[in-house]
Amino acid sequence: MTVQLVRPVHKCGIGAAVNTRTPYHDMFGQAVSIQNRGYDGCGFSLLDESAHVIRTYKGEGKVTTVFQEYSVAEQVNSNRGIFNNRYKTTGDVNPRNLQPITAGGFVVSHNGNVFNYRRLAEEHGITLEKDDSDTHVIAQIIKQAGSFESGVRALAEGALGAFNLVAMDADGVVAAYRDPWGYHPLFAGRKGDSVYFASEEPGIYAVGIYDTEELKPGDLWLTDGKHTEKFSVRPPHTKSRVPIAERLCSFELPYFMRPGGSFNGILGSDFREAAGERLAMLDEFPNDGRHIVSPILNSGDHYAIGYSRGSGLPLRKAFIYNPDMTRIYMQWDKMTALGLTPQELAALKNMANPRIVKGKKVIVTDDSIVRASTIPKLVEELFAAGAEEVHVRIGTPPIISSCHMGLDHSDKTKLSAVRAVENPETAEIEEIQEKVRLSLNPAPTSLRYLPLQDFKELLGDRNNHCFACFTGKYPFPLTNGT
Predict the structure, then answer these.
(1) What is the domain extent for residue 125?
(2) In 3-state terms, what secondary structure has residue 454?
(3) CA Rg, the chain, in Å?
């Protein structure tokens, strides 16, 4: 079946624990702390010091589910390992594509999406099965090169897209690499002779380390724990002459990251609250006791805090939150067995509270509208619960184009703004807002996105972010992928 996802999703959380007495426990805590980056499957690779081999344990589902079946991993005589939480954007959801992936004496865990991975496979003589992921190509390139530094350099010179890595060899050397474009974050932390890596800071905090270092684009760390070498592998351009420049994913702070983590020095919760304040500045709702601000839980929380602070309007929770329905879109294959639509599932996650909304004019905040699969049902619930008006406020600009760097909305025709507006690339934001509003059933009383210029200002953009999904302008030619 074709999976129709409710919200944008991200490819994978990665991390490592090096030179620790408890690598299994440490990685378990790390992986659970960044579970938000992937629910399809997870895996641990541990270096068995007794047998001098790498042992990998992986399965479909969340960390807590998979490792109920792999308690044997805790018994491995090891002091280091790498892990992965997977969400697919290339390659089918099957055991072969679960990570870490082994190639010769290396294991590799990858976060991102290499747009031209099939062309890279051809160039390097790598045979792919029909549904193999880009991580298979990355692992084989490192194997062919025979070393992390040479393999990473081959990737930096040939790959287009996002490819943060943690990897380990049979000698126990662990590599961490942030791709030269810098699309997604990668952090390191130290505790004595122990070194840890994770896609987000909470994955470092989980082992009791609160002083983190964000790897720069092109940074390669090689460590055995006691000795760490750092390199910069960042060529000025690819072999195909595509210039390489910093392109931070502009969707990390508003959506992907846990709000307690940071990216490029900006705390996620601070960004979201500032975006909410900007949205409030664009409105003039009276503080008359009838207007309230409410988040869609939990994605709209910090936007609502900012909007309330900026407007002076009271912050109330118009929805009753059901935590058992958290991140339903990442487990959609399993949820379809329930016989419910995405809209019905969304309403079970956020149930309108009539005791809060009856007779009120509700300003609802959220981070994004992608396919508009769930927002109409939530608007309907609010009206049914007695809200007089429903005003939707979105903390990002309209999404008008596909992403090929790690987001799962590559089919442009399914985007709500594209369906509603004939030429969204040239349309004014006011036109997009109104046409998207009218396309929703029922239509909210009003709809407003955060304008692109405000969005850029809050990110501190210095022409160093990727805004392709908001503008249709990509950092590399899409003709280079096959």
Answers:
(1) 13-246
(2) helix
(3) 23
CB 113 within 8 A of CB 138: no
CA distance 178 to 201: 15
Spatial separation of the C-alpha atoms in residues 130 and 26, rounded to whole Å: 35
Q: What percent of the chain has pLDDT over 70?
A: 91
- Could you report the per-residue pLDDT of 141-181, keeping only the tens digit for each? 999 999 999 999 999 999 999 999 999 999 999 999 999 99
Query: Does residue 211 sit in the same domain as residue 283?
Result: no
Tokens of 424: 């969204």
Whether the Cβ atoms of residue 136 and residue 101 lie closer than 8 Å to each other? yes
- Give the pLDDT score at 481: 55
Q: Could you report the per-residue pLDDT of 287-327, keeping only the tens digit for each?
A: 999 999 999 988 999 999 999 999 999 999 999 988 776 55
Split into its structural domains, the chain has a count of 2
In a domain, 424, yes or no: yes
Residue 371's alpha-carbon distances to 8, 239, 243, 277, 415, in angstroms, are 9, 36, 32, 25, 5
Is the Cβ–Cβ distance between 196 and 188 less than 8 Å?
A: yes
Residue 231 forms beta bridges with which residues? 220
Closest listed residue to residue 292, CA positions, set 370, 360, 391, 193: 360
Residue from 239, 256, 251, 131 nearest 476 by CA:
239
